[in-house]
Amino acid sequence: MSHPVPQPQCPSCSQPIMLHDPLTRCAHCGQPFDAEKLLRPLLVGRNIEYYEREFSRMEAEKKYASWNRAAFWNGASWLFYRKMYGYGFLYLLLAFALSFLTEFLLIRTLGMASNLSFLLAPFGFFLWFYFFARGNTLYSRHLRNLTQKALSLEGAQREKFIRRRGGVSWLGPILIESLVALSILAPLLAAIFS
User: Fold this and answer.
1) Residue 180 backbone phi and psi in degrees, to 5
2) Within 10 A of 89 (CB to CB), how many other CB atoms are there?
3) Using an 8 Å Cβ cutoff, are 183 and 87 in contact?
4) pLDDT for res 83
5) How far is CA 67 from the centre of its chain?
6) Which of 66, 65, 87 has the alpha carbon at shortest distance from 77?
7) Which pLDDT band holds residue 81 (cuts at 50, 70, 90)?
8) What separation in angstroms does the CA of 40 have from each of 20, 45, 91, 123, 148?
9) Burial degree of 154 (CB within 10 A; 0-12, 13-18, 19+)
C-alpha cells in the first residue's frame, strides 16, 4: 500500500527538492545536503518528531539499544505497522518455533509435565525483549537500509519506492491481530462444536 510522498525542502533555501533529481546538492542554491536526513521524514511518516529525537539521542550517546514504548506494548503488530516485514516474520517464526518446542517436543514427546514448560519462559522473554525493547534500534537499521536502497534508485523508481516502502501500514497489524484471534478462537470453537 502506498502513501503520499510530501515534497522535501532544501535545508538552506527552503526550495522544493525533486526526488527524481540527484540527491547531493540543491538545484536552486547549490548547497550540499545530507540525503539520509532528507529522506528520513518521507520514510518514517507518522511520528517523525519522536524518531528524529530518539535517533539523534542514540547517535549523540553512541547508544545502540533504545526503548520504544509502542513496540514494547504492541509487539509484532508494531513491526508490521512500521513495514518492517522481515523482522516481523522473523519474530513470528521464532515465537512459533519456541511454542512448538514447548508443546510438542517437551510436553508431548518427552512427557515433561506442562507445568514445567515455564523453564522456556526466559527464552520467550529474551525474544520479546530483543525485538521490542530495542525497537528504535531495529527501526533505525531498517530506515538506513531503505535509505540506501532509495538512493541507489533513480528518477520515478525512487519516488515509487519511497511511496511503497515508506510510511506506515494499518493492513499488516490488522492481519496479524486477526491471525492471533483466529489462533485463539479456533481451538475453542473446535472444542465447542465437536
Assistant:
1) -65, -45
2) 13
3) no
4) 96
5) 14
6) 87
7) very high
8) 16, 8, 25, 34, 11
9) exposed
pLDDT for 177: 86
**From CA 125, how far away is CA 147, in angstroms rounded?**
31
Residue 159 neighbours by CB under 8 Å, 6+ apart: 5, 19, 20
How large is the average pLDDT for residues 116-144?
A: 81
* Number of residues in the chain: 194
Model-wide pTM > 0.85 = no
Cα separation, 169 vs 151, in Å, equals 22
Which residue type sits at 81? Y
- Using DSSP, state whether 93 is helix, strand or coil: helix
Residues 6 or more apart whose Cβ sits within 8 Å of residue 168? 3, 45, 46, 81, 82, 83
